[in-house]
Design a protein that fits this description.
heterodimer, A: alpha+beta, Sulfite Reductase Hemoprotein, domain 2, Sulfite Reductase Hemoprotein, domain 1, six-stranded mixed beta sheet, five-stranded antiparallel beta sheet, globular, B: 105 residues, 20% helix
Amino acid sequence: MYAYDEIDRTLVNERVSEFRDQVKRRLSGELTEDEFKILRLQNGVYLQLHAYMFRVAIPYGTLATNQMRALAHVARKYDRGYGHFTTRQNIQFNWIKLAELPDALEDLAKVGIHAMQTSGNNMRNVTSDQWAGVAPGEIEDPRIWSELIRQHTTLHPEFSFLPRKFKIAITASDHDRAAIKIHDIGLRLIKNEKGETGFEVLVGGGLGRTPFIAKTIKHFVHGRDILSYIEAILRVYNQYGRRDNIYKARIKILVHELGIEKFSREVEDEWQHIRNSSLQIDDEVIEDIRSRFTYPAYEKLPHMPDELRQAAADPDFEAWRKNSVAPHKVQGYSIVTISLKPTGGPPGDATAEQMDALADLADKYSFGEIRVGHEQNLALPHVAKRDLPALWKALDKLGLATPNVNLITDIIACPGLDYCSLANARSIPIAQELTRRFANHELANLIGRLHINISGCINACGHHHVGHIGILGVEKNGEEVYQITIGGRADENAALGTLIGPGVKFDEVADVVEDIVEAYLALRERPEELFMDTVKRLGVEPFKERVYATR
Amino acid sequence: MTSPLEQKKIKIAGPSVVTANRTWDGIVVYRTAAKSWSADLSEAAIVRNSDEAKALLAEAVADDVGAIGPYIAPVQIGDDGKVLPGNLREQIRRTGVTIGQPAQV
């Protein structure tokens, strides 16, 4: 966990007071909605279909248990008893009242949580690998650098009015769990030949109506120079990014239109002006941040404790363990992913009771730490293997032990037309139907790793472009229609999916997915060949033929 | 459903209302003939042509304190005179999400 200092606490508290005054002036009519809108957006407050939506940041996806309890408290006291974890390590509350928002923010500020820059045209929550600090083989904990960037970009005056929103993600593992290639800036932590820490810097990734995979702009930027290099990118973007057309305002459009070579030359020129300035990071600064992250006092534990050996006889436990439990960098410990994708449930939602209970379990089994991943699941990062059977039983009682992590029912979905004012079609009911259709865990395991992503409009909050199967809801003649793509992925080999044909109606989507899955099972050369391997080998044509042969 | 955020021209094809969200709590409201807001669709002022719609919208926009984001939304009038939302989006705004909310499931 990271311990905030007095500067952080003061800043967050002052922001609450400031927003309380702004809300008061808005409700009295002293501020018009036009004047207030930018202020509320900078504090994570949107207007959705039924109410205001309040988005709270969970920097680099790390939560302490008192913070999780505070989120539960907000869900219970100010909302309707639940929250929605998003693809950018935030949580959203869907039914918040503007008049009560300052109180909710004040309650969150007591545990160091805020909503600054979770919306608006500024630097958004810096996201990272939910396994940061515990993943085997990791270069080093990417949250140290995430925190450095968070501090530098929070309320940075030069980056508070960018042409459009700006998102940074950081990974430090070979396998990218932070989806860095679909971010405005993606950072991959690496070591150079001298063993020094630095970053491969990628730029211009993003989804929405014009999707692009990020391109490498520099193969190695030394850690001490990372702030100046990011700042150089942002300055070029701030200068040349389009403000006249919201659909062309993201940095991905600028990078695409200038070309990565010209864009990188512009950045390089800017960087040379600022790299040897106060933006150069002293080792002491990094060490100070590093010292504020505390790590558990791990015990020396056996690789295979008796408790785990005995529990292995239970097929239900084994089904959960196989999909939810991952290796930890310390022997005798595991990383446990907690599926927020129950059969028939909205992806990413958790009730206040589940949040509270999970906080208790994290205190008992995970040194008081919880993580949030971009796949809209949670994780307990430090679970002793001997405790896995007891944890599983406790999670099962809470409805949090669905053994479907990384399987076909582990669906990423945006709120869609059930909540969102931008949406054209519903997302959640499609996800719910798919989780029912593939509720048989033996079948889901037979299918293997398969990611479905659903968005309710072209803004692509459900990341449909990078789903192994992507589903995009659009509106046609007043009806919901869904376009299906195949072959997308969000990891280190990120790729955009290919549209397989005309859109299908709401009621047909699950049938189409079933057809695609049946085609895959028939076409794969062996059980170990994953869906994406089959698509890579054969292309989308066989799937297209299967889907449209009878439609 | 085409988002009303993209509503640029006022062109209506049938009976319509002006709807928005109440400022202090965000709930869905409808502009009434009495120049106020109501959470009850049956109390909404019905407009039937572009001029009426423009006038009602202008009046709603002027009430910036009461509600935010006003726009024109289609409705259907049943044989019994009952006013119903004119599309799925407005149906969801009136009756709530089409899914069970986790805290209630």
